[in-house]
Every structure is written in C-alpha cells, then in structure tokens.
Structure prediction request, 145 residues.
Amino acid sequence: MKILAFVFSLISFNSIACSCMGYDIEEAFKDYPVVFSGIVETIDTIEVKEDGWFEYSTLKAVILVVDTSYKGMTAERIKVTTRMDSAACGFPFEEKVKYVVFAIPDENGLHVGSCGPTIHMEKREEYYESERLRVTRFLSKQIGT
Prediction:
C-alpha cells in the first residue's frame, strides 16, 4: 500500500502545472542575487541531473549578451537555464530578444523561472506593458546606487 501511495504521489507531482504568486519588485531585487539585461544569443537544450531526481531533466540553456548588470555579475555573456515550458515554470526566452533577467544560482549555474520578475523588454501588448514599465522604472533607479 505504501508503494502505491508513493507511485501516486510521483504521478500527481509531475502533473501539477506551474502556479505563480505575485511579487514585490523591491523585495525581488533584494532576493535575487543576479539581475541584468541582455539579448538572447542562442538557446539550446541540455540534459542535467538535478538533486533529488532519479532521471535527467531537459532544460533550456540560454546564452545572453549582457547589456547592463544591475547586480551580481560582470560577465559580457552569461548562460542561464530554465525549464522547457511554462507549465513547468520555464521562462519563454526567444533568440535575438532583449530581457531583464532575475536569476538565482543552482546546481547548474544560474536559473530563471517564469514566476519571477524576468521580463521581455520589447513586448508591448496591453496586458504586459504595465508590468514591463514597473520593472524597468524600478531598475533605472538602481543604476549607480
């Protein structure tokens, strides 16, 4: 019976979609150790062994050319990883697009999820614009502080 419950919990866990709560941009800036803006140069997939998992996971490996570092780095290019799709809290990076990236270190380097304030800098859809402006206005005040 315990084995059946364990198997069921694995199946249930894998079927749960990403669910995000809101964030306060000032708190997020304090909490994320790496914040920068940059343009995506390449997107590849990689297989990684994550702590606590029996199987390898497939992640996106995103190389960005850094435009501005707001916090935590000085590199001209940086690799971040993210899950493959939004259902797994992966961020939908696109090549040749500029983003403000909020990243956290993990066992694979730096990781970006869809629930943080990482934001597409060129998207101007009405539903997205107020969030983009909130993040970029906050960050413009952080330069030189």
Summary: The chain is about 25% helix and 35% strand. Residues 1-15 have pLDDT under 50 and may be disordered.
